[in-house]
């Protein structure tokens, strides 16, 4: 069927979202916005911007809750963070129901979850027990974002998603013990 000149033809060239648009979408997602979650799941063009945001998140300094020392950019820490995020993604992917259609949406979700690092500089204002409480809340926020996204991606309840995400998180924390 031909066109009579009144309809547009799709050429396959799509306009990529800007880095600010992707950062805005990721920021809304980490604040539990369902529309931003759907935008991350459906818009595959965000992937390169999310990789850039994830790498930039590793440049944000923070204070370690274990030593109390300031942690600035360190290539080893960045590599460890990328590997740990990769294992977290891998274990969450293994628990997905529909694997064929959830690989890239889950990857975009895990990359967007790294946007939580923007609050890490708050750790410089805290010390002692408050720093440990802050890091506990930070990890809880990170995991609750994962539960929120995993439940919508797989169409399951929050309870089942919480079990899956926590199991993936605990398995991820065990990975360094295998290489030590």
Describe the model:
This protein is 64% helix and 2% strand. By secondary structure, it is an all-alpha fold. It has a two-stranded antiparallel ribbon with strand order 1-2. α1 crosses α2 (34-42), α4 (75-94) packs antiparallel against α5 and α5 runs antiparallel to α6 (129-154). The radius of gyration is 19 Å and the shape is globular.
Keywords for this entry:
single chain, two-stranded antiparallel sheet, 180 residues, 7 helices, 64% helix
Give the topology, please.
Blueprint: H1 19-30, H2 34-42, H3 47-57, E1 62-63, E2 70-71, H4 75-94, H5 99-113, H6 129-154, H7 158-179
Antiparallel strand pairs: 1-2
- Distance between the first and last residues' Cα: 63 Å
Helix segment tally: 7
Shape: globular
Number of strands: 2
Q: Report the mean per-residue pLDDT as an integer.
A: 90
Which radius of gyration do the C-alpha atoms yield? 19 Å
How many strands, which pairing sense, and closed or not: the largest β-sheet? 2 strands, antiparallel
Judged by helices, strands and strand pairing, the structural class is: mainly alpha
For the biggest β-sheet, the strand order reads: 1-2
Proportion in helices: 55-70%
Task: Show unreliable segments.
Answer: none
Strand content is under 5%
Helix-strand sequence: HHHEEHHHH
């Amino acid at each position: 069927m031909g066109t009579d000149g009144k309809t547009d033809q799709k050429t396959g060239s799509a306009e990529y979202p800007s880095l600010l648009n992707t950062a805005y979408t990721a920021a809304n997602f980490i604040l539990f916005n369902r529309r931003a979650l759907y935008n991350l799941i459906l818009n595959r063009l965000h992937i390169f911007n999310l990789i850039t945001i994830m790498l930039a998140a590793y440049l944000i300094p923070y204070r370690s809750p274990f030593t109390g020392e300031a942690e600035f950019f360190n290539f080893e820490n960045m590599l460890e963070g990328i590997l740990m995020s990769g294992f977290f993604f891998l274990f969450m992917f293994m628990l997905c129901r529909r694997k064929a259609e959830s690989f890239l949406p889950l990857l975009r979700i895990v990359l967007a979850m790294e946007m939580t690092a923007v609050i890490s500089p708050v750790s410089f204002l805290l010390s002692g027990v408050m720093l440990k409480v802050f890091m506990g809340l930070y990890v809880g926020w990170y995991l609750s974002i994962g539960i929120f996204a995993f439940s919508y991606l797989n169409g399951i309840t929050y309870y089942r998603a919480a079990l899956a995400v926590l199991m993936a998180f605990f398995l991820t924390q065990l990975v360094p013990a295998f290489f030590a």
